[in-house]
Amino acid sequence: MDKKHHIAIYTTASIPWLTGTSVNPLFRAAYLAKDGAQKVTLVVPWLPLKDQEHVFPNGIKFSSHLEQEKCVRQWLEERTGFASNFSIRFYPGKFSLEKRSILALGDITVIIPDDEADVAVLEEPEHLTWFHHGKRWKKKFRLVVGIVHTNYLEYVRRERNAVQAFFLKQINSWVVDIYCHKVIRLSAATQDLPRSLVCNVHGVNPKFLQIGMKTREKQQHDNQAFSKGVYYIGKMLWSKGYKELLRLLRDHQKELAGLEIDLHGSGEDSAQIEAAFKKLELAVKVHPACDHADPLFHDYKVLLNPSTTDVVCTTTAEALAMGKIVVCANHPSNEFFMQFPNCRTYDDGEGFVKATLKALSDEPAPLADKQRHELSWEAATERFLEVAQLDITPMRKSSKTTSKSFLSTSLSLKKKFEDASAGVHFVGTGFLSSQPNEEQCKELGLAIPSKKKGFSSGRWI
């Protein structure tokens, strides 16, 4: 390419919060910028100290965004083995206890100057646009690509009700249509969205591939790489697969007699989950959360992962990269993993029992070089560049048989409808969105927003 693209990756979380939307966009930025073909900026939230307490583990706090940036870069370099070659900028945010997630404050498009605005990647585009009250993403950037990480509809269905899920589905489609030129869904487990396609553009932390290489060497020498049996790892929330796992184990205790399983995790439902699993006749041990790359996990042979709320489960990818067998549900969220021989799927309880017992009796197939590459961030970056098509300026498609005059009229009407729809969203979020406080603006070098004066004389951009 004659001219470097400037890719601004906006996301909804940041290290040291170890969640998918902090880790995966960070790796994406590092690998997109690695060869210098693109100029990359990662845009992450900056939280007040009181909100950092709710989000960051082990009491970690930062008095400035520069301290947090140093932590982010150090964490990344320890895992990739190379110095990052991209910029990090922060936007003001707040943590919502009700939603258990970070919300942006004010117009976060201003974080990227107009003369640098080229391509925007919105990691979780629904989340970033629900309350967006500012410049239109499509007018600020030449190309806006959304990457859908989270199956919000499934969480709402489980925790609330179908009516709320229905309205959320409509809102998600609405805001994504307004603000994104194209959307990448990591798997078909997410809702279908306007101008979307399915492609897994996530890779696995290189650390796990290194562990997998050592495992393969062990297998080649003595074929005894695994001394432990079955485990599950995940945040201890019922919605994170524990409910499904409990039901499967409870309903098939006789067939699985003698099975020993270790659960690793911490979370709001820890006490309830531990009490429920202890009632089983099976030998279940519950352990606190620990990094999946910890040597504690290297010797396990089988990961059981019955979760169906994930879009593409990071834990499954990590276990496969380490050379383990994974027993998981035959579900759209696991479709990418089905290409690997160590991925064993089941359709029902009987299939779960059969797959689990066979996995325990089998030795995992050593991970081939091609399979390692498919799991890597190098391959994920190749897939992203292929589907994002950064050089192509988006245009609405229409039938080739349509006359030019009708095509022009049709496009004009669509644009007017989209502008009107965006206007409605702009006015509505005027009542819902919050502005950053003076301290956050000063910390980030942003203009202090004036107090809202209503919307009677306002206009959307």
Automatic annotation (TrEMBL):
Gene3D superfamilies from the UniProt entry: Glycogen Phosphorylase B (3.40.50.2000)
GO molecular function: digalactosyldiacylglycerol synthase activity; UDP-galactosyltransferase activity
InterPro entries reported for this sequence: DGDG1/2 (IPR044525)
Subcellular location: Plastid, Chloroplast outer membrane
Entry keyword set: Chloroplast, Glycosyltransferase, Membrane, Plastid, Plastid outer membrane, Signal, Transferase
GO cellular component, one term: chloroplast outer membrane
EC number: 2.4.1.241
Catalytic reaction annotation: a 1,2-diacyl-3-O-(beta-D-galactosyl)-sn-glycerol + UDP-alpha-D-galactose = a 1,2-diacyl-3-O-[alpha-D-galactosyl-(1->6)-beta-D-galactosyl]-sn-glycerol + UDP + H(+)
Coiled coil ranges: none
Family: Belongs to the glycosyltransferase group 1 family. Glycosyltransferase 4 subfamily.
PANTHER family linked to this entry: DIGALACTOSYLDIACYLGLYCEROL SYNTHASE 2, CHLOROPLASTIC
Protein name, as recorded: Digalactosyldiacylglycerol synthase 2, chloroplastic
